[in-house]
């Protein structure tokens, strides 16, 4: 989120939905993002990965799916959940603990036929 705020604070964004008209590749945004990362000694990450991390964080902290989709510019919340919200290790821990409990149950002995 901090990186997102830094990028959006750039003067070129003020009053513009598309900061660099005609640049559909997003090159200018990537250049700016990588510059902010370098200036702040942050690991360089792809913007797609940063976007997915933000949506995952927001989803895990209770932001409703329809708001995530709206922010992502999607008309369908399922698209946002499918492509951007990724579970991490902590999200999977309850399932792993349940599985571990099932796997540790004693095996019933089989009767001979």
Automatic annotation (TrEMBL):
Keyword ATP-binding listed: no
Record SUPFAM superfamilies: DNA breaking-rejoining enzymes
MF terms (GO), sorted A to Z: DNA binding
GO annotation, biological process: DNA integration; DNA recombination
Taxonomic path: Bacteria, Bacillati, Actinomycetota, Actinomycetes, Kitasatosporales
Keyword list, A-Z: DNA recombination
Name under which the protein is recorded: Tyr recombinase domain-containing protein
Recorded superkingdom: Bacteria
């Amino acid at each position: 989120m901090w990186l997102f705020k830094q990028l959006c604070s750039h003067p070129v964004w003020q009053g513009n939905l598309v900061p660099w008209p005609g640049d559909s590749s997003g090159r200018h945004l990537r250049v700016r993002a990588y510059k902010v990362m370098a200036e702040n000694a942050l690991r360089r990450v792809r913007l797609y990965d940063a976007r997915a991390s933000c949506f995952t964080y927001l989803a895990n902290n209770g932001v409703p799916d329809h708001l995530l989709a709206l922010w992502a510019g999607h008309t369908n919340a399922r698209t946002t959940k499918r492509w951007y919200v990724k579970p991490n290790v902590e999200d999977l821990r309850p399932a792993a603990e349940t599985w571990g409990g099932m796997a540790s149950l004693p095996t019933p002995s089989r009767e001979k036929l």
